[in-house]
Amino acid sequence: MFKLPDKVTQLKPYDPITGSYAVRLDANESYFDLPQVLKDKIADQIEQIDFNRYPDPIATEVIEAFAAYYNLSPDCVTAGNGSDEIITLLLNTFMEKGQKLVTVSPDFSMYGVYAELAEIEVMTVQKKENLQIDTDALIAACKEANAVVFSNPCNPTSLGMPRADVVRLIEAVPDCMVIVDEAYMDFWDESVLDLINKYPNLIVLRTCSKAIGLAAARMGFAVMDPYKTGLLRAAKSPYNCDAISQKICATVLKEQTLLQHCRDEIIVQTQRLYTAITELSQRYPDLLETVYAPRTNFVFVKTAYAREIFEQLQKAGIAVRCFPHGLRICAGTRREQTLLISELDRILQPK
């Protein structure tokens, strides 16, 4: 009898929050929508697309815009349909069945899912009690593996691994592919993006979904030396990035002043959110155990009452992300933060 493999039948689908909420602080999106003048410019660009033709297979325009924004050579950049496609492509192209991939925990859960679908063995290194990566433990694990992948700064903890520690890892395991997912690095300043030509085992991932504010247009990038870039481009699907997303992202990436302004404002609002939740934790220390200083556009709160708080916020029309022992809360507008803090205060007050 025909039987599907266990690696598929045992999968649990990724479960983002669905439904309508007055305040959405659950998906780490930018709270800035594009200004109308930029939307009009994008509309003009889209009108020029020949919809009966396939898109540019290399995504030349958007790669050049991305490279210019981050001061890179376009020859080092591969575009994908979001970072998820890039991660899947890397694991299936640069690794083989039965090889070992190191992940850390907690971290982005889909790394392990994509690895298991590629029939790659996953080795997980637990983070320290303070949720920081144990660099020595990670190096030890990587010496027994073929690759490692981790988000930096981290989703969901909001914490970061300093550049010096990342470099120490890269140098300590020259035979291990080090994939650093810098989806949130626009909000911090410890990137290793400039080192991709220095270290052959380094690959850096970036996205347009966070600071760039284009979560609706799926576009992610892998940055590495030109040789591996050529191999990855050869392995990817010929037309993996649609023409509309390419045009949207290329147009927005050229608006450097706007993007940097939005990023700076998000950093300010994230710090404001962190301060407000920290004040709540000082008032309710038995309920909010730890509020972690963020390097991202969200704040992570350790609490044994995550599920209860999460459900009460949902009833009030506020969506945040719930984890077994914590809440991940994205920075929103000042108004959204005011509503959130007011509701959190009400929920936490003794009944």
Main traits of this protein?
12 helices; alpha/beta; seven-stranded mixed beta sheet; 2 domains; Aspartate Aminotransferase, domain 2; four-stranded antiparallel beta sheet; single chain; Aspartate Aminotransferase, domain 1; 351 residues
Question: What features would you describe in this structure?
Answer:
Helix 3 (60-69) runs parallel beside helix 9. The chain is α/β, with parallel strands linked by helices and 351 residues long. The strands form three sheets. Strands 2-8-7-6-5-3-4 form a seven-stranded mixed sheet, sandwiched between helices. The radius of gyration is 21 Å and the shape is globular. It contains twelve helices and 13 strands. The chain has two domains: 6-30 and 257-348, Alpha-Beta Complex (Aspartate Aminotransferase, domain 1); 52-254, Aspartate Aminotransferase, domain 2 (3-Layer(aba) Sandwich).
What would a concise description of this structure say?
This protein is an alpha/beta fold and 351 residues long. It is built from twelve helices and 13 strands.
List the helices and strands and how they pair.
Layout: H1 6-9, E1 23-24, H2 36-47, H3 60-69, E2 77-80, H4 82-94, E3 100-105, H5 110-117, E4 121-126, H6 135-142, E5 147-151, H7 163-172, E6 177-181, E7 202-207, E8 220-223, H8 226-235, H9 243-253, H10 256-283, E9 290-291, E10 298-302, H11 306-315, E11 318-319, E12 321-323, E13 326-330, H12 334-348
Parallel strand pairs: 1-11, 3-4, 3-5, 5-6, 6-7
Antiparallel strand pairs: 2-8, 7-8, 9-10, 10-13, 12-13
